[in-house]
Design goal:
Blueprint (H helix, E strand, L loop, with lengths): L1 H11 L6 E6 L3 H11 L4 E4 L6 H5 L3 E2 L5 E9 L5 E8 L4 H14 L8
Parallel strand pairs: 1-2
Antiparallel strand pairs: 1-4, 3-4, 4-5
Helix pairs in contact: 1-4
Length: about 120
């Protein structure tokens, strides 16, 4: 997620009016602290209270200890509809960001034709 944060302006043109939601079954306090400390330009959602039910509906997987394997990432387009879901966002994999950029480009074409 830090790579997305660090590339947010250059690769995604400030997100082009999309909302990015990283959803996991991590506790809300843990996500809130991480979000604040790292200054992420997107939203984290905790599904801990639902015991991961929503997280798994979006394709998230859990480890044997019931903790998050990878966060699911939901892209909400400018129209308010879900533009795409990445069930297991591998934040250390550059290809994950290419997939994310494709979703964003599909719903918000770059007005200058650069993306």
């Amino acid at each position: 997620m830090t790579a997305y944060r660090d590339q947010y302006a250059s690769l995604f043109n400030e997100g082009r009016n999309v909302v990015l939601i990283g959803i996991s079954n991590d506790p809300v306090e843990e996500l809130g602290s991480w979000l604040k400390d790292a200054d992420f330009p997107f939203v984290f959602a905790s599904d801990a209270a639902n015991e991961g039910a929503t997280y798994t509906l979006f394709g998230g997987k859990r480890r044997d200890n019931n903790m998050v394997e990878n966060r699911s990432v939901i892209v909400v387009g400018p129209d308010g509809n879900i533009a795409g879901v990445i069930p297991q966002f591998r934040q250390v994999d550059p290809q994950a960001y290419e997939e994310l950029a494709e979703i964003i480009d599909r719903v918000t074409p770059d007005p200058e034709g650069e993306g």
